[in-house]
Amino acid sequence: MLIQSQDIPSGKEDKVMMNLTDKAIDVIREVCNGEYLGLRIMVNKGCSGFSYNMGLEEHAGEDDQVLEFSDVKVFIDPGSALWLTGATMDYVDNSSMGSGFVFDNPNQPPAPSATAGGGCSCAVKSCG
């Protein structure tokens, strides 16, 4: 598996350092198909860890960090940058589990213990 890293220009050390595999880059390039500028990655931190949301973008946001991997651009908002530093995004194609992007993220918080007692308090809304 080949991994491409971002080069951080001098004086820009606060920029997110994220890696993408060649397969992830190829899939993003194919999906953008010249119609979109790149892929936005957003991280939400919840009680059971991180969730990742992605979408195709036609332009960068004012505060976005723009990462370039070959001819592929990835847009990251300031709130997600902290959680993506050091992460690697790959694309897997697994016939039994399905295909999609996966993250190897050293910032991922440990899974909550079933016996810890803290956990998450979630409200359930009934429909009907």
Structural overview:
The chain has 128 residues and is mainly beta. It has a domain at 19-104: HesB-like domain (Hypothetical Protein Aq_1857, Chain: A), CATH 2.60.300.12. It has helices at 22-32, 78-84; strands at residues 3-5, 19-21, 38-46, 49-57, 65-69, 72-76, 88-94, 98-104. The strands form 2 sheets. Strands 1-2-7-8 form a 4-stranded mixed β-sheet. The longest helix has 11 residues, at 22-32.
List keywords for this structure.
mainly beta, four-stranded mixed sheet, globular, disordered C terminus, Hypothetical Protein Aq_1857, Chain: A, 128 residues
CATH topology of the domain at 19-104: Hypothetical Protein Aq_1857, Chain: A
Q: Approximately what portion of the residues adopt beta-strand conformation?
A: 35-45%
Roughly how many Å apart are the termini? Answer: 49 Å
Sheet of most strands: 4 strands, mixed
The counted number of beta strands is: 8
How are strands sequenced across the largest beta sheet?
A: 1-2-7-8
Distinct helical segment count: 2
Q: What is the H level of CATH, i.e. the homologous superfamily of the domain at 19-104?
A: HesB-like domain
Q: N-to-C SSE series?
A: EEHEEEEHEE
Question: At the first level of CATH, what is the class of the domain at 19-104?
Answer: Mainly Beta
How does the helix and strand content classify structurally?
A: mainly beta
Uncertain regions spanning at least 5 consecutive residues: 7-13, 121-128
Radius of gyration: 17 Å
Proportion in helices: 10-25%
Second CATH tier, the architecture of the domain at 19-104: Sandwich
Q: What characteristic shape results from the CA principal axes?
A: globular
Name the average pLDDT: 81
